[in-house]
TrEMBL record:
Signal peptide: none
Domain ATPase AAA-type core stretches: 23-338
Native species: Microlunatus aurantiacus
InterPro entries assigned to the protein according to its UniProt record, in alphabetical order: ATPase_AAA_core, P-loop_NTPase, RecF-like
Keywords for the protein's UniProt record, in alphabetical order: DNA damage, SOS response
Protein name (database record): AAA family ATPase
Pfam families, alphabetized: AAA_21
Amino acid sequence: MISTLSVAGYRSLRELRLVLGRLTVVTGPNGSGKSSLYRSLRLLADCAQGGVVSSLAREGGSPSVLWAGPEGRGVRRRSPVSLRVGYAGDGFGYLADLGLPGGDAARSAFTLDPEIKRELVWAGPVLRPATTLLQRRGPLVQVRGDDGGFEALVADLEGFESALAVAGDPVRTPEVLAVRDQIRSWRFYDTFRTDPGAPARAVQIGTRTLALADDGSDLAAALQTIAEIGVVDDLDACVDDAFPGSRLRVSSEGGRFDVAVHQPGLLRPLRAAELSDGTLRYLLWVAALLSPRPGELIVCNEPETGLHRSLLPALAGLITRAALRTQIVVVTHDAQLSDLLEDEADTTTIRLVKREGETRILGSEALDGPPWTWGTR
């Protein structure tokens, strides 16, 4: 489980250190930095997939994503411009430090692409020289050898490549592989489409689906997988919580799957194409959160969007059920959903505010937060 998330130099997040729990709720008014925090987690996931630089370029590149303010109140910038993201837990920690292109890269046509300047993987909750397992500076990637020293793994890594994406030797870098696999198991769900042409409304070829697709296109297959190898009692309970007396089934004709919702008083079930937007959206969250193989982290961005207020208690119950099986981060601006989730004994609530253009944690001072060090370039 992730216990610490740190972000520095990203949009309005000049320096933010968070303690994450089994269920963490990130809330705050519009413009407080919630979306930036959500995206910073996605950037960490992109590092493991090898796509962090292209992801940042799609956001507008270095001019759009890097912190442009001063280093402190009344202090002009002296250190290099950088965007840093990292996490730590009881097992391993990882950080990536990105900055502006230099040398030959500065003359490239890809002027919006930042470079990965530095990466570190370590054991334990805090970065220490003695527990560092992998270190990357520029093109050189080194790993801890059997003698305790560092030996070169790659000497010519490009600035747009992540060490996690290339350090794939199970003999020399088993811990790095463990970090990469952990991050790659993270799942991110944003606003689902529910319009008439939404993928979730279409009949689809069904195959066992352990994780709902980002666009919800395999909704019926994901629900049927939960019914067969997941916790079917949770599935039935979550449907009944939201729509009392209703039953969810998946129809299959010639291998093509469709959702069928049996509601009290109706003579036939309603198919996915017939469901209301709110009903379909709730079922998408059910499929996302009750996955039989949930991975190590599920991040939900504003799951309340498009749901009627009466469904929020059922949504909160769904999220808390899921948090019994995996770590959950919920980003929301809805006070009711936040309060419902905060009533759970194990919920960690983080309230963000923006002051002088900088995102901060409400009630927290600059030096508060979990132990963390970025090291130096």
